[in-house]
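fwd from M.: "can u put these together and see what the complex looks like"

so here's what she sent:
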Amino acid sequence: MSLEKIEVDALVVGSGIAGLQSALDLADQGYSVAIVERNPSIGGKMISLSKVFPTLDCASCITTPRMASVSHHPRITTLTYSTVDAIRREGKTFTAAITRKPRYIDEKECISCKRCEEVCPVFLPDEYEQGMGAKKTISIPFTNAIPQFPVMHPEHCIRCGACARACPKDCIDFLQEPAPVEIKAKAVILATGYETTPMTAKKQYGLGALPNVISPMAAERLLAPHGPYGRVLRPSDGMTPGSIAYVQCAGSRDKSIGIPYCSRVCCMYAIKQAILLSGSLPIADITIYYMDIRAFGKGYEQFYNNARAMGINFVKAKVARITEDENHNPVVRIEKQEGTSGPEEIKHELVILSQGLVPACDGSKFGLGAANNEFGFVKLSDETVSSAVTDGAGVFVAGTAKGPRDIPDSVVDAGSAAIEAASYIRRL
Amino acid sequence: MNEKITEAASKDNYRQEPKVGVYVCHCGGNISDIIDVKAVAEALSKYPGVTVAREYAFMCSSNGQDLIAEDIKNLGVNRTVVAACSPSLHELTFRNVLQRAGVNPYLHEHVNIREQASWVHKLDKAGATAKAIKLAQAGVEKVLRKDALNAIRVAAEQRVAVIGGGVSGMRAALSAAGKGLEAVIIEKGPRLGGKLLELGKMYPSGETGPAIVKKLSDLVLAEGKITVHTSAEIDFVSGFVGNFKINFKKTDGSSAQVKAGAIVMATGYEHYKPAKGEFGYGEDANVVTLPEFISLLKNSPADRLEYSGREIKSLALIHCVGSRQVEGVHKPQADGRLNDYCSRTCCTSALHTVNQLKDKYPGVRVYDIYRDIRTYGMKHEEYYDKASKDGVLFMRHNEADQPVVTSDRTGHTVKVKDVLTWGEELEFKADLVVLVTGMTPADITLIKSQLKLPSGADRFLQEVHPKLRPVELANSGIFVAGAAQYPMDSTEAMASAGTAAAKAAILLAEPDIPLEPFVAVVDEHKCTGCGLCPAECSYDGALMMGEHNGKKVAVVNPALCKGCGACVAVCPTRAINVAGWTLDQFDAMVDAIAKE
């Protein structure tokens, strides 16, 4: 297989909101950029969110235009469904070894007509919907995905050939192989983002085995306009929950799971989801169990006050344990830190664990000198002087790759990484 | 996102027979939950002049944009109406679609059926739908009367003026210079550094404020592309994007002027100054603010914490002084507003200071009275942890139950209704009370009024959108860096300032800057030369009387005109119109809306 070669000014690893914005801020200054994204679509975590605090804009309304700008930008090349296997530094140039994973379709021919998806007889749990909906074994990842190419999952494919027969362009390729790509760049921006702490992180919270104790990402999909059910239902029995609770710091500020830091976003996303829930389920009781409410950004305190005025119940209490009753109603054992003393057990119908943020990628694995901090996030060389310069010359960082932060902070970070990379390139 | 509209000529399609495409967006439920979008599209598809009307979940997404582009290509659509969110959010997005598809981008009309229909008429779905149809029909009437316009291009000074020489200003100048632009820092104080010059050890690095300032100012002074003016008092700022003029006075009384294509507002913050009597401040010498305490701590002898010659053995910190204020509990500020925002940095700063205090004077008893501890940064939680381990006694009160400080000869008594002990009324003595004060924006009244800069209810400079355009002010070419926008710590200011410089670099990436063509246009045939309009114009030189073919007429300077329309309102002969917003268009819109 011939090696595809791309030469650009800067390589951006990751296409979440920080990666997209860094790429745009570089390209708009006149630099050429390649973005490499491991998922089949650009857009990162943000594209799957419902609405975003504190403005309650729909997340798609903020993300999709940026995705479109990136995909239409004459100076940006985007490689999706591709992994960065290694980056070597040779003098003043970085050479990145990339693998394009096979989608099992001919991307040059595909017209995104979805016929293959329509005829495919095999359904899979849809990870984009956090496993709550189903998708076909060959399918376009989600409505707003860019690019609009279907991906086939050969491990589930029954080789019935229906897709190949349905395809008007004859572009299904069952034998497609991974394809190597080489990218040469003068600077690298790591925008590799975060993952949420696993549902299994804390034994006391049910290890992910309680069906009606769900992740905040699942709650985002339940609240999203095109979510799996089009409404808020709880997983165990499809019932509309009448009592919903948020367990704050379920994966942050908790030395017992090795995450002593505050994840910065969980208070605000819980408040936002609570506000959205009270919109879609007006009679539901919503409780947020918290240690401290950290509404520290611009407009956040006012957002928190609005939530309180709407009747969302904020209870200062540490949740010690979550069990369930015979109807799968989560039972939350708490000790209140205000009001009355003594432990209490309170039954809810749906519980959301406000998980924290952990790094999605080990930025130091590329061996470019960019070191991690003790929690595995990319460390800044001197944060009092720059917010993007790492210990590796020519390697910059943006967004949650350097630690938990919200969307406005990530967008601001991205511009800073872009100007640092531009300055570095100019001085080479 | 900075997709520039280039005037690269689109085809002369406005001369062709108008074919309007109408696109109704669901806005992911924001609109379609209330408005029957199918009914809107259906009604519009039958409206005169409309070739096609469609509805889609997210018109702004790539798929939605492609729908429009396809219709332009396949159906010959040459004017578009998108009924969606606010034009401030996505009008530019759709203009770019037209541009890419070869249609003049100004043959687009953005109709807001979210803020103006679905959001405000939640309880009246039928009414909201009917209103959306009317608004969209008015949009069609308007777009049918639009002319193809071209962006006005003005030459730009390849220089960035940075107002404020604190850490944000220095970072912004360094980043702009790093990109190859000239940068000029204008600082009113005698030296670079701003507020950090007064501060002691800073979190998270543990370096002192002056040490951090030195690192940055050494870089600034070594950078040939940066000019620094200190002790510079700005007295007049004027101009527009690409051509700003900043006049300032130096200490010797002489005046100087900086010309710049872009301005970065790095004007910083002031520590909140408690009102006289707020927790005894200003009346009782033993009530101090956190910044005052930081210098007290720095200047105390090694063996004892000393204030006014007296040893301090116990102190009480009260958080959220001047922040998170609540109606009915706190007194409004001088301007009648409450500081209802969180000042973001004070919890961490207070606990970081307490850590240093306990390291230096372990015997001092510390009470910490708070509402929520907001130590959100990566290592900040450790300060909270250490304070707890060091024996700091934390008490938490509800906003309605403010702590009370009283003083008599025996010292200060602090009373707190502590929710951590289930509402117990606690009372204790403290030698010193430290008010953990927040941030307020620095006084930039003059610059704000001269440049007409927007600020929010919190008085900080207001960005266009926190996620789409987080460091851009509504005034084209003016950016905000650091705590002028909102309280933030110095590391966060680095990101903000870097991004402000990035946006300035993008703006100045080309030698000339495209401006919106929405400026006043005079029809010389209709103008009678009456001279009423120049008197109404608020922009120097934008509109003057001149001559055209030997006739006295009003003449517009498009680079200076802001398109405010004041001249249009006084013209007795309808000779002046703002391009893209003409009186004929408005008449037609009103007729469409009023039609039974």
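replying to her w this: The first strand of chain A starts at residue 4 and ends at 7.
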